[in-house]
Task: structure prediction
Amino acid sequence: MALKPTIYKAQVELADSDRHVYDGLALTIAQHPSETLERTTARLIAFLLNSADGLTFTKGLSTADEPDLWLHSDSGEIEQWIEVGQPEEPRLRKASGRAARVKVYAFGRSASTWWKLNGDAISALDKVEVVQFDWDGIGEASKLLQRHSKLNASIVGGVVYLSDDNHSVTLEPAALKTLG
Result:
């Protein structure tokens, strides 16, 4: 019998002053059985940083031909392809052929090593932007994610402030590769 995903429901009050996005979000996040809570949290934060009408979580780890998040145009074209983790350059090259923009949110203890090994090849891809989450920050943020969460998220100057009623976490994503 296959294991089922763990479902997280998050009510998030989002105030993104960088993009002038202010919204109350009711998000359902399916955590794949092989996925860590830290990765699930990184997907949530990537969603908040890119929140837009039509942005959706995909089947993620269980589907090789889909990113973690994506945004489609009204005509069905992929406007944004968002990966969380440490994808290989061939996957990002293929995504660049399918989407108008590709964004990677790298995280994990080995994210810096991944970038040192793959940064030159990935930097050659015009449509790809890469941001790194601090591993310790993601670990702290994951403590806020419960099966049913009420969170506040503020984004100011690229810094993410995430809180519940009792705790708060500050994340400063580092841009490794930006679009020209």
In short: The chain has a mean pLDDT of 95. The chain has one domain: 6-177. The domain at 6-177 is CATH 3.10.640.10 (Restriction endonuclease-like alpha-beta roll fold).
